[in-house]
Specification:
Layout: H1 8-13, H2 18-25, H3 28-47, E1 50-63, E2 71-74, E3 79-84, E4 91-92, E5 97-102, H4 113-191, H5 197-274, E6 278-280, E7 285-290, E8 298-299, E9 304-310, E10 315-321, H6 323-326, E11 334-339, E12 358-365, E13 375-381, E14 398-409, H7 410-419, H8 427-430, H9 433-450
Antiparallel strand pairs: 1-10, 1-14, 2-9, 3-5, 3-8, 4-7, 5-6, 7-9, 10-13, 11-12, 11-14, 12-13
Helix pairs in contact: 4-5
């Protein structure tokens, strides 16, 4: 019998094999459908589970107060390093010596520059005192010259009054003498010799003497008037010269005082500059890094020599958030964070299952983004419901954080992510408290105006 004439299925049915029985009874499609249905039910159930939305950001550990952050300790002057008093990592107290530098500028190389400058100041002040005494003496001299001028004028005025009286008297005598001479001459002519020639000549001499005396008195009065006009010019020249000398002396005094002021400023600057040779710790802390090594190196003014980390900084976290998310934050918002180096499990939508995370809250939100276009948010520990941050944290440690927002379903969150919808948050929660109060105040004013 040929092989093709054999009915394989009929032959197999007569064989007593369990495998052939199972193949005939199995229904694989029903099993697969049940599994798929179960998975679909689980996924549908997951879509209705609660999911807490959050704003994520990365950052580092920092100090809340600027004075607690690492600071470079600069030198105030150009100099040369002479001696180091600390080493890197050393703990220093406020006022401890860090490094000593010396001068490199030519004008300050002389160690006696301060006492020499002080001597110049003292000499200049002494010269000013002498010039001031000269100015005072010239002031007295001017007063004396003015008094002498007034006295001379008064004296000449008295003489003029006296000479005027004498001129009037001489004029009267001259008039009387001429009148007597005229009557005597008339009498000599009329009497034809009764009056002697000697008598007539005596009257003539008397008249001539009276006339000469009048002329003399008039000349004396005229001379006195000339003296009166020359006295102001004479004393005016002397007074003007004394005033000029006084003004010149006072100008020298003013210049000297200006020089003294400059010397005082220089002495003060040198005195203060001496305190810049020794650089001291501004507060308690640790010497983190020395930017200059060894002795003999030259440092420029304003250049940091060492970096000091304050001993007990008040730690915070600076988190950097995208501009589209920063509007959803406000001071006081709760944040979950974990630090690099501390094992943590964080599911942003289910914070209740997080492990190894720490609590924080928003303290400060910058008003402007940085150069990278993100906003800085400062976080402080939230120890109300969470454990304190690790004491071993160092500034600069990496941080990741999630600011907790509203709770929605997993399905809504997936739908939002697929469509690019914004996060779900109420308006009052998104705005700072002071901004909300300001908006309410503005609304109240508008309402009042409407009434």
């Amino acid at each position: 019998m040929a092989l093709s004439d054999i009915d394989i299925e009929r032959e197999l049915k007569h064989l007593p094999l369990e495998t052939t029985a199972l193949l005939g009874e199995a229904n694989t499609s029903r099993i697969v459908s049940r599994w798929l249905l179960g998975i679909l039910v689980v996924l549908l159930a997951l879509l209705f589970l609660p999911w807490q939305q959050s704003v994520r950001g990365d950052g580092t550990v920092t100090a809340l107060d600027p004075s607690d952050r690492p600071q470079g300790l600069p030198t105030r002057i150009d100099g040369r390093i002479e001696a180091w008093y600390v080493r890197e990592g050393q703990y220093v107290k406020k006022g401890d010596s860090i490094v000593r530098i010396s001068e490199i500028k030519d004008e300050y190389l002389n160690p006696q520059v301060l006492p020499l400058t002080a001597e110049q100041q003292a000499a200049k002040e002494s010269a000013i005192g002498e010039k001031q005494n000269k100015a005072d003496a010239l002031t007295v001299q001017i007063g004396q010259l003015e008094a002498q001028r007034d006295f001379k004028l008064q004296q000449i005025a008295n003489k003029m009054e006296q000479y005027r009286a004498e001129v009037r008297q001489a004029t009267l005598e001259d008039s009387v003498a001429r009148d007597q001479l005229r009557r005597r001459e008339q009498l000599f002519r009329d009497t034809l010799g009764l009056v002697s020639v000697n008598d007539l000549q005596s009257f003539q001499l008397r008249a001539q003497s009276a006339a000469a005396k009048l002329i003399e008195k008039q000349q004396m009065l005229l001379s006195t008037q000339t003296d009166l006009s020359s006295v102001p010019a004479e004393y005016g020249e002397k007074i003007s010269k004394a005033r000029s000398d006084r003004a010149s002396t006072l100008a020298e005094v003013s210049e000297g005082r200006s020089d003294v002021a400059k010397l005082k400023d220089k002495v003060g600057s040198l005195t203060i500059r001496k305190g810049f040779y020794l650089i001291e710790a501004p507060q308690d802390g640790y010497v983190v890094r020395a930017t200059k090594a060894g002795q003999g190196e030259i440092v420029k003014s304003g250049e940091a020599i060492v970096t000091i980390q304050p001993a007990r900084p008040r730690k915070a976290v600076e988190l950097f958030v995208k501009p589209m998310d920063v509007a959803l934050l406000k001071p006081g918002r709760h944040v979950r964070i974990f630090f690099d180096g501390w094992p943590a499990l964080q599911i942003s939508g289910w914070p209740q299952v997080a492990s190894g995370t720490f609590g924080a809250q928003v303290a400060v939100i910058d008003q402007f983004p940085n150069r990278a276009g993100v906003f800085r948010v400062l976080l402080v520990p939230d120890t109300t419901h969470d454990a304190a941050w690790p004491a071993q944290l160092r500034l600069g440690t990496g941080v990741q954080g999630w600011a907790m927002l509203d709770t929605v379903t997993v399905g809504w969150e997936l739908w939002r992510q697929l469509n690019g919808f914004p996060l779900s948050i109420s308006e009052n929660d998104a705005l700072p408290a002071d901004a909300v109060a300001g908006d309410k105040g503005s609304a109240a004013k508008k309402g009042g105006g409407a009434k």
